């Protein structure tokens, strides 16, 4: 529902057409350097998350949303993210 007090300037703002890169974080690993140096093809690097845990979406180092990994409908094997939480980027909350 639109708020008449809020003006949508996206049509007149040229920056709305600039592409950005979003990084999807599925987890972190903290191996020792010696273990990292021993990694070979097909090695498994355990992460700090479970398969069904939410992923985090970042622009730079700013967390902008969380979501669930899903497969793109009609495109077998291609990943997408279904958003479950979105930061209030307008108000910085």
TrEMBL record:
Alphabetized, the UniProt keywords read:
Cell membrane, Chemotaxis, Flagellar rotation, Membrane
Which residue intervals define the domain Flagellar motor switch protein FliN-like C-terminal in the entry? Answer: 17-87
The Gene Ontology CC terms held by the record are: bacterial-type flagellum basal body; plasma membrane
| Subcellular localization, as worded in the UniProt entry | Cell membrane
Annotated membrane topology: Peripheral membrane protein
> Does Membrane show up as a keyword for this record?
yes
- In which broad location class does this protein mainly occur, judging by the first location in its UniProt entry? membrane
Record's keyword annotation contains RNA-binding: no
* Alphabetical list of InterPro entries matching this protein: FliN-like_C, FliN/MopA/SpaO, FliN_T3SS_HrcQb, SpoA-like_sf
> Which top-level group of life is the source organism from?
Bacteria
Q: Which GO terms describe its biological process?
A: bacterial-type flagellum-dependent cell motility; chemotaxis
> What GO terms are given for molecular function?
cytoskeletal motor activity
Q: Name the protein family.
A: Belongs to the FliN/MopA/SpaO family.
- The protein's name: Flagellar motor switch protein FliN
């Amino acid at each position: 529902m639109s708020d008449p007090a809020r003006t949508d300037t996206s049509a007149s703002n040229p920056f709305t057409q600039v592409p950005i890169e979003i990084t999807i974080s599925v987890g972190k690993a903290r191996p020792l350097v010696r273990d990292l140096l021993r990694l070979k093809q097909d090695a498994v690097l355990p992460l700090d998350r479970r398969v069904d845990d939410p992923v985090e979406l970042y622009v730079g180092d700013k967390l902008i949303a969380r979501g669930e990994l899903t497969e793109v409908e009609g495109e077998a094997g291609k990943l997408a993210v279904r958003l479950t939480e979105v930061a209030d980027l307008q108000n910085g909350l």
